[in-house]
């Protein structure tokens, strides 16, 4: 009896960890292809992971491509979208949740409607509007449709609703203005929710593909997801260079993920359940 | 007249309302300009012959009539539908299975969780590029492996059914971590005492899964299914980058057809009318889904 349960346990470990290894194979493989020499013929799949290693492709990319410019663009767009989502959504949620005014539920309902509208179905009129405003190939055009998504307001409103009313009341009696209450009480108490919204917005903006593909026509304004596929050429037998580009683009995301793993997962949990 | 004027004056004097408006203003402006305005503009555009050369010839519902007889539209809509019904169950059930693994008593579940979630933080461009070379016909990882174990090479992306397999596999690999996290948090909320009580009553593992776990994670399951269907119905980048919609147009999804109509053939009016149909279908689906979910959850 005991022996059987032991073998079941071992089998469970093998299946679980085996699956985890399979899950990581494509990423690990990408790393090894990036490190390999160009033009080496692979006959056995184990050879993918064996030397000779080479950093030539890294040097070629550092000096010969716009990869770092695209990375810079992605960082600018994702961080500014995150900043403005946190600012505008927290202000809007504060008004709806904390300040008492007429029509607040109506305003909130109007915001909720927007959650049903994915950016993918809006791209043609969005492009038309951006063009009229002269925003094609601009950081503003890349970030603004993300800032307009009401998910942050909805999540933060739910969170602000859980802040004890007595706290707000006593601050009011002490003569604090709404602005002070927003800045000194509500925001500090909501760090977890703000982090959740911020992380979610950053990852989503960082990964946006269709909208940047449409709104950027000059190569210097590409974000990473638009730039990377320009290296994609299935007919070229050698793919060390494209995979090195891929590897360099993936690297910051993987490092940030490994460092902030717990926060990222907790954050997504919150957005998924509330959204 | 006089009363309404005094009402307005009172409203303005009521400083809370003014402050609320000020706080609401930044988000409302962006929301109005870049989310609501495009919807209205989109509907307006769909009623016009709207191309680069000929702008704004009012044609009423002609774009919508044209769409009914456009076989490419129906093929693309069918492809999106096919992707939704194949990928959604796979990725929802996959997420549940991985969550159960991460919630088990094994040692080092944090490592497992980290591994399963990792692809999700990568951009769709990165995962697509990996998949293209992973399934590449001559020197791809999968085919070198198949040759090594004595099988022959497979033309993954040139065969319709295999191309679909690659697309669903790529999306599963990339996004299943998100569903896993949602299920995992629901599983962790189930009190351990429930399982202990069931064990005392002689319930098997399978019985407790069926009678305790599944009912208790039901609210989360509804949420995960809804998010997954919405996500899957907007699929574009994986096809665009991995199969290019091919072979032929057999894996081209609706969003790609809209993109090509709008930005390659510059027929904005027609493209946006298709986007509108998708928006209406998604909205109706979400509302019906929420209604059914609420009825079912309140029945219990």
Index terms:
A: 275 residues, 2 domains, 14 helices, B: mainly alpha, MetI-like fold, 2 strands
Write a structural description.
Chain A is mainly α and 275 residues long. Chain A has 2 domains: 2-54, no CATH class; 65-274, Orthogonal Bundle (MetI-like fold), CATH 1.10.3720. Chain A has 14 helices and no strands. Chain A has helices at residues 2-35, 56-64, 67-97, 104-114, 119-132, 139-147, 151-161, 165-173, 178-189, 191-207, 210-215, 224-227, 240-259, 261-274. In chain A, α3 (67-97) packs parallel to α6, α3 packs across α7 and α3 runs antiparallel to α10. Chain A is globular, with a radius of gyration of 24 Å. The mean pLDDT of chain A is 86. Chain B has 300 residues and is mostly helical. Chain B has one domain: MetI-like fold (Orthogonal Bundle), CATH 1.10.3720. Chain B contains 14 helices and 2 strands. Chain B has helices at residues 2-13, 15-46, 62-68, 71-102, 109-117, 124-134, 141-148, 160-188, 192-200, 205-216, 218-233, 237-243, 254-264, 268-299, and strands at residues 48-49, 57-58. Chain B has a two-stranded antiparallel sheet. In chain B, α4 packs antiparallel against α11 and α13 (254-264) runs antiparallel to α14 (268-299). The longest helix of chain B is centred in the first third of the chain and has 32 residues, at 15-46. Chain B is flat and about 70 Å long. The model of chain B has no long low-confidence stretch (mean pLDDT 88). The interface between A and B is large, with 93 and 87 residues.
Please give a quick description of this structure.
With 275 residues, chain A is mainly alpha-helical.
């Amino acid at each position: 009896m005991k022996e059987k349960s032991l073998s079941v346990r071992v089998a469970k470990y093998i299946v679980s960890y085996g699956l985890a290894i399979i899950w990581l194979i494509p990423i690990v493989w990408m790393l090894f292809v990036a490190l390999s020499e160009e033009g080496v013929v692979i006959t056995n799949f184990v050879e993918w992971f064996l030397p000779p290693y080479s950093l030539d492709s890294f040097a070629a990319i550092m000096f010969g491509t716009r990869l770092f410019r695209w990375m810079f663009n992605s960082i600018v767009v994702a961080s500014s979208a995150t900043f403005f989502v946190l600012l505008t959504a927290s202000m809007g949620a504060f008004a709806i949740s904390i300040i008492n005014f007429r029509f607040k539920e109506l305003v909130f309902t109007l915001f909720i409607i927007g959650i049903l509208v994915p950016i993918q179905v809006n791209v043609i009129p969005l492009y038309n509007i951006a063009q009229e405003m002269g925003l094609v190939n601009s950081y503003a055009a890349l970030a603004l449709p993300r800032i307009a998504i009401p998910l942050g307001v909805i999540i933060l409103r739910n969170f602000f609703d859980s802040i004890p009313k007595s706290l707000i009341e006593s601050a009011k009696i002490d003569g604090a203005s709404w602005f002070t209450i927003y800045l000194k009480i509500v925001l500090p108490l909501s760090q977890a929710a703000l982090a959740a919204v911020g992380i979610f917005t950053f990852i989503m903006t960082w990964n946006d593909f269709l909208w940047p593909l449409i709104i950027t026509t000059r190569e210097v304004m590409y974000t990473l997801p638009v730039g990377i596929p320009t290296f994609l050429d299935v007919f070229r037998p050698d793919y060390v260079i494209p995979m090195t580009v891929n590897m360099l683009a993936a690297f910051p995301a993987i490092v940030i993920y490994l460092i902030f793993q717990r926060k990222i997962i907790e954050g997504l949990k919150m957005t998924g359940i509330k959204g | 007249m006089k009363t309404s004027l005094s009402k307005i004056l009172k409203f303005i004097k009521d400083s809370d309302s003014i402050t609320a408006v000020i706080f609401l203003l930044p988000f409302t402006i962006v929301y109005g300009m870049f989310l609501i305005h495009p919807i209205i503009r989109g509907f307006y555009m769909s009623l016009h012959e709207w191309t680069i050369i000929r702008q704004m010839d009012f044609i009423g519902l002609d774009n919508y009539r044209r769409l009914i007889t456009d076989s490419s539209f129906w093929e693309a809509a069918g492809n999106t539908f096919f992707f939704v019904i194949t990928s959604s169950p796979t990725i929802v059930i996959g997420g549940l299975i991985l969550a159960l693994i991460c919630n088990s008593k094994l040692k080092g579940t944090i490592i497992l969780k980290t591994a399963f979630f990792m692809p999700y933080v990568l951009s769709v461009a990165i995962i697509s590029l990996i998949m293209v070379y992973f399934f590449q016909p001559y020197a791809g990882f999968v085919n070198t492996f198949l040759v090594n174990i004595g099988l022959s090479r497979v033309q993954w992306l040139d065969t319709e059914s295999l191309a679909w397999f690659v697309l669903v596999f790529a999306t599963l690999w990339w996004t299943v971590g998100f569903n896993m996290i949602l299920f995992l948090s629901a599983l962790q909320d189930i009190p351990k005492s429930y399982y202990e009580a069931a064990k005392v009553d002689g319930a098997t593992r399978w019985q407790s899964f069926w009678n305790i776990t599944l009912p208790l994670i039901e609210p989360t399951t509804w949420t995960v299914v809804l998010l997954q269907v919405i996500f899957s119905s907007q699929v574009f980048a994986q096809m665009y980058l991995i199969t290019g919609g091919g072979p032929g147009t057999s894996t081209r999804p609706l969003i790609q057809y809209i993109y090509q109509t709008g930005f390659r053939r510059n027929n904005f009016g027609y493209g946006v009318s298709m986007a509108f149909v998708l928006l209406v279908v998604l909205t109706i689906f979400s509302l019906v889904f929420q209604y059914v979910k609420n009825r079912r959850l309140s029945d219990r």
